[in-house]
Amino acid sequence: MDFDLFKKENEIIKVAETALEKGHFDEDSQKQFQSLLGEYKKLSKHAKRLINLSDRNELKLRDAGEEIKRQKKELERRQEELVQAEKMASLGQLVTGVAHELNTPLGIILTSSSSLRSETNHLNQLIQNAKAKKSDVARYMVSAQETCDLLERHSQSASELISSFKAVSVDQAIDDKRDIELRAYVKSIVRSLKPVLTGHNVQVIFQNSPVAIPITTYPGPLSQVITNLVLNAYKHGFEEGRLKGMIEISLKTGDEIELSVCDNGKGIAAEVQGKIFDPFITTARDSGGTGLGLHIVHNIVFSKLQGHIKVEQPKNEMGCRFVIALPKALKEE
């Protein structure tokens, strides 16, 4: 359009210059001049309409850009809410499992302490009535020693379970970066997860590394990743304990740290293999699955832990293996 206007302007100028050279406008020159001037006005008017339309489109694009930014922020906010909801769901399962597991040692402690009190009262009554024999005291001492050993053993078991759960739950609630020894930390995560699977047909095994593995990372998000992968295998690979099997966690160290979670369950359905980390992909929607667990794992590994994750399903074998590569130290954000 700008080229057409420029062309008409040149034609009009040329006609005017020719008339000036002649000293007057003849009839043909006047007709040509008026015709060119009319075309120029039409083109100019059309150009103005296009400019106005362009301005309106630019305004619409600007408004659309602002709307996209707003929707992006809203999407990020909702995604963060989903991450928190998934985190709370994982913690809820841990709480239930730990509470169930604590019932056993606490029940034994209560029963044993009641028995010890009863025996102590009985011996005290014999002593007060001057009827206590040496054999009574000896029998009490043996029984008291056995009860004390039982109390100590189950108190230690409960204390270790609570300590593991406390470390994992606090880390999942607080996103602090710090130095940790990865073997010991993964071991505490595995211990906190075992109560969730107690009474079912699934075992969680940690293949400990022979060497210490120091790492600077976010323990909370790392704990959530491991928890989600184990619970995902339990739910989908073993149908929540209806199938028997094993989930194995292992560590390797080199230029990067490799953490793998492997199971011998029923594997990944063919229709979801290529989109396992996509949001809302699940084969358990009828039983309450949201399809966000592995998507959240993927996002945490890439964005928070600065690593990468892949899934492997051996041919002609059951189960699957998630492999996570982590840097030994995070880059400054």
Q: If you had to describe this structure to a student in words, what would you say it looks like?
A:
- The chain has helices at 2-22, 27-128, 134-173, 182-197, 219-237, 293-304; strands spanning 178-181, 202-207, 214-217, 245-253, 257-263, 308-312, 320-326.
- By secondary structure, it is an alpha+beta fold.
- Among the domains are: 2-73; 174-333, Heat Shock Protein 90 (2-Layer Sandwich), CATH 3.30.565.10.
- A 5-stranded mixed sheet has the order 2-4-5-7-6, with helices on one face. A two-stranded antiparallel sheet has the order 1-3.
- A hairpin with a 7-residue loop joins strand 6 (308-312) and strand 7 (320-326).
- Helix 3 (134-173) packs across helix 5 (219-237) and helix 4 (182-197) packs parallel to helix 5.
| CATH topology-level name of the domain at 174-333 | Heat Shock Protein 90
Q: The biggest beta sheet, please?
A: 5 strands, mixed
Low-confidence residue ranges: none
Question: Which CATH-level-2 architecture of the domain at 174-333?
Answer: 2-Layer Sandwich
What is the average per-residue confidence, as pLDDT, rounded to a whole number? 76
CATH superfamily of the domain at 174-333: Histidine kinase-like ATPase, C-terminal domain
Please tell me how large the radius of gyration is: 38 Å
* Widest beta sheet: strand line-up: 2-4-5-7-6
Quote the beta fraction: 5-15%
The CATH top-level class label of the domain at 174-333? Alpha Beta
Number of helices: 6
| DSSP strand count | 7
Spatial gap, N to C terminus: 50 Å
Shape: elongated
Helix/strand order, N-terminal first: HHHEHEEHEEHEE
